[in-house]
Amino acid sequence: WERLATSGMHTIKTSDNPPKANMPYDREKTSNLDRHYHDYDEYWAILEGGAKLAVGNEILDVESGDCLITPQGWHQDCISLKDHGQMRLAWLSSTPRGKQRVGHLHDDTHGAPEPTIPLSRGRDA
To answer: Which residues have CB under 8 Å from 43's CB, separation 6+?
Structure first.
């Protein structure tokens, strides 16, 4: 990678006032993570807890030990958390491509995303 966009640790928590903008799925959202996309691929390693996530329009259940890859230009969101109301994860993102913006991007501010590859489910593929 020529330039690593970002990496770190993150804890997603249950929220009394979750961000609900632009949700295309019919689910009760309870987490503090906003629905967003990136100009790079993002990799999550779930360290503790579990959640119901949305990647594109796919709804996935993840738990400790799972890895998730969200390709450039696909929306991601945490809908709800399991058991303890929080999930800890390590994340790493690849070199920015396309418009090369870093951070959480939103349709209403940054325009529609431009996915570069189709989504696939490695566990089920």
So the answer is: 67, 68, 69, 91, 92, 93, 94
Pick from 7, 44, 23, 42: nearest CA to 107? 23
pTM: 0.87
Do 3 and 94 form a contact (C-beta atoms < 8 A)?
Answer: no
Q: What is the pLDDT of residues 50-79, one digit of tens each?
A: 999 999 989 999 999 999 999 999 999 999
Residue 62 CA to residue 41 CA, distance in Å, equals 18
- Torsion 103-31-51-59 (CA) sign: negative
Contact 66, 87 (CB under 8 A): no
Find the angle CA(21)-CA(75)-CA(121) to the nearest 5 degrees.
140
* DSSP structural state of residue 40: S
